[in-house]
Design brief:
Blueprint (H helix, E strand, L loop, with lengths): L3 H13 L2 H8 L3 H15 L4 E4 L2 E4 L1 H28 L5 E5 L2 H6 L11 E5 L3 H10 L4 E4 L8 E16 L4 H11 L1 H9 L4 E3 L4 H11 L9 E3 L2 H8 L5 E5 L4 H5 L3 E5 L5 E10 L5 H15 L5
Parallel strand pairs: 3-4, 3-5, 7-8
Antiparallel strand pairs: 1-2, 5-11, 6-9, 6-10, 6-11
């Protein structure tokens, strides 16, 4: 009989495109992900992915299987969550959605001390807004506001998108070129450096480049890593550039492990919001999570 977790793992690989990101999403080891996938392929009798470098490209049969299981699996997960809530009378369970990097940088350290049960979900902001509206999630952390009349958004902080680099990057040379030769020469200098990016999210780089240079970047990063926190760790090696939210590398900049290279001609800021349904049975638990975020990130002028 097929193991339901094999389908969960298959779905995570399909959505993230790599075994590493799937493991991060599911909070299991990469060998565990590989084992689930090989077991499922052996069970169904055909390959579900073609392995191209580090990317997992779904085969035609893989696409068919994904389309077949997505909706039933989502319903089962919703039943599982609702059943857990109904059977745990004394200890409430709330579901919170946010990006992976935000969780690692803020809430992760407090999870073991929470006085209630917690389910963390990672996904795209549009998907999380839909799940919040449907009652699958109870709270989301998002820079994007939805339009549903059932959801209220509370701005609580902001993030600035900045250009950072390893400590060996020649920041002084960049500043001389920018000040003496202008923005076009500065752009060329930047393009000739080594760049880091992530497979799932290039939005920060695109927004920063369009705001400062008037067009999307016409180059691709040299190194694609699992997530933004991975980028910051790689930059501590001394070389390379990346565009990331400032709160992800604040400590590294203060410690001199990473350099703030440029904030741009115009600051690029995103307002962060709490999103929750107007009617909820978990207001006390939601307020607790909100308080932890304010403690970690600080309530800034927005």
């Amino acid at each position: 009989m097929v193991n339901l977790e094999w389908y969960r793992t298959f779905k995570a690989i399909y959505k993230t495109g790599t075994l590493t990101e799937a493991a991060d999403t599911l909070f299991i080891s990469q060998p565990g992900v590989s084992l689930h996938l090989s077991s499922l392929e052996a069970y169904v009798g055909y390959k579900l992915f073609d392995r191209t470098g580090r990317r997992m490209i779904p085969t035609e049969r893989g696409k068919v299987l994904y389309n077949a299981i997505t909706e039933p699996l989502a319903k089962l997960e919703e039943v599982e969550k609702n059943f857990q809530k109904s059977t745990e009378k004394l200890t409430p369970t709330i579901s919170v959605g946010m990006c992976f990097e935000t969780f690692q940088t803020t809430l992760e350290q407090y999870v073991s001390s929470l006085p209630f049960n917690l389910i963390i979900s990672f996904g795209e902001y549009r998907e999380m807004l839909d799940q919040l509206d449907k009652g699958i999630l109870d709270l989301i952390i998002t820079p994007k506001k939805g339009v549903s009349p059932n959801i209220e958004h509370e701005a609580f902080s902001s993030e600035q998108i900045i250009l950072v680099g390893g400590k060996d990057v020649d920041k002084e040379q960049f500043e001389i070129i920018l000040n003496e030769k202008g923005i076009e020469h500065a752009e060329e200098w930047l393009k000739n450096e080594k760049w880091y990016g992530t497979a799932g999210d290039m939005e920060h780089l695109f927004q920063f480049w369009i705001l400062n240079f008037g067009h999307k970047p016409n180059f691709r990063p040299n190194y694609i890593v699992p997530n933004l926190n991975s980028i910051v760790r790689c930059l501590k090696g001394g070389t390379g550039l990346a565009v990331v939210p400032d709160f992800l590398c604040k400590k590294e900049i203060e410690n001199g492990e990473v350099q703030l290279i440029w904030e741009g001609e115009k600051p690029l800021k995103n307002t962060l919001h709490f999103g929750c349904r107007k009617k909820t049975n978990y207001q006390t638990e939601i307020d607790h999570i909100k308080q932890l975020f304010r403690k970690m990130m600080g309530k800034e002028d927005i």
